[in-house]
UniProtKB/TrEMBL annotation:
<protein>
    <recommendedName>
        <fullName>Alkaline ceramidase</fullName>
    </recommendedName>
</protein>
<feature type="binding site">
    <location>
        <position position="208"/>
    </location>
    <ligand>
        <name>Zn(2+)</name>
    </ligand>
</feature>
<feature type="transmembrane region" description="Helical">
    <location>
        <begin position="31"/>
        <end position="49"/>
    </location>
</feature>
<dbReference type="GO" id="GO:0098542">
    <property type="term" value="P:defense response to other organism"/>
</dbReference>
<comment type="similarity">
    <text>Belongs to the alkaline ceramidase family.</text>
</comment>
<dbReference type="GO" id="GO:0016811">
    <property type="term" value="F:hydrolase activity, acting on carbon-nitrogen (but not peptide) bonds, in linear amides"/>
</dbReference>
<keyword id="KW-0479">Metal-binding</keyword>
<feature type="binding site">
    <location>
        <position position="204"/>
    </location>
    <ligand>
        <name>Zn(2+)</name>
    </ligand>
</feature>
<keyword id="KW-0378">Hydrolase</keyword>
<keyword id="KW-0812">Transmembrane</keyword>
<dbReference type="GO" id="GO:0009651">
    <property type="term" value="P:response to salt stress"/>
</dbReference>
<feature type="transmembrane region" description="Helical">
    <location>
        <begin position="205"/>
        <end position="225"/>
    </location>
</feature>
<feature type="binding site">
    <location>
        <position position="19"/>
    </location>
    <ligand>
        <name>Ca(2+)</name>
    </ligand>
</feature>
<keyword id="KW-0106">Calcium</keyword>
<feature type="binding site">
    <location>
        <position position="21"/>
    </location>
    <ligand>
        <name>Ca(2+)</name>
    </ligand>
</feature>
<dbReference type="GO" id="GO:0006672">
    <property type="term" value="P:ceramide metabolic process"/>
</dbReference>
<dbReference type="GO" id="GO:0046872">
    <property type="term" value="F:metal ion binding"/>
</dbReference>
Amino acid sequence: MVETSSFWGPVTSTTECCEKNYVYLPYIAEFYNTISNIPTILLALIGLINAVRQRFEKRFSILHVSNMILAIGSMSYHATLQNVQQQSDETPMVWEVLLYMYILHSPDWHYRSTMPTFLFLYGVVFAIAHSFFRFSVGFKMHYVVLCLLCIPRMYKYYIYTQDVAAKRLAKLFIANLVLGSIFWFCDRFFCKEISSWPINPQGHALWHAFMGFSLYFANTFLMFCRAQQREWSPKIVYFMGVLPYVKIEKPKGQ
């Protein structure tokens, strides 16, 4: 996009989306890409409240908080289009996937301290390296590989889960992920064509919205699976008949 004079100064980020800069406010570079992170924050807050209220393991509270941190970092990046804020968006993306890897694999990991230690050090090293070298294509390839490493374990959880409502959550997670990715791809690679349309569909903003729901459904599905492992009699219920969440009944003494 065309660089525009603003409160934040010249654009220093290595990536921009197919949204015109500073159209609505001088303090927000990409307006729709900024506000589209709000659903992620709200859904993560709902998940956090449920995890804390029912005393789920702390890993799930941290997971929901990490979703909020990621969304806030994304808002900061798209509002300013500065390189430092871009790091605050991209680095938490990697940290979050590492957290998912821990949650997916920890139940069967025999040496409990080794995996979280390794993942923590990996995240720290990546953050330092990314701040110095400012990976662009390398970051995207690295992120995709980490996500792909989560798929086999997620699929295993899916096939071993018999609950129909829980399986529906996994399907909603995938559906939102695929739809969001299509919008991201079109916004990224067909910007020239889209820019000539009377109305820009704001594909990257739609990616944010769909990913917010995708993360919520994934988190809820993983909470259900973990509750099953702990024999907490989980079931999927719906807030106001719309938003699914996990309700558990812990045995006495827990």
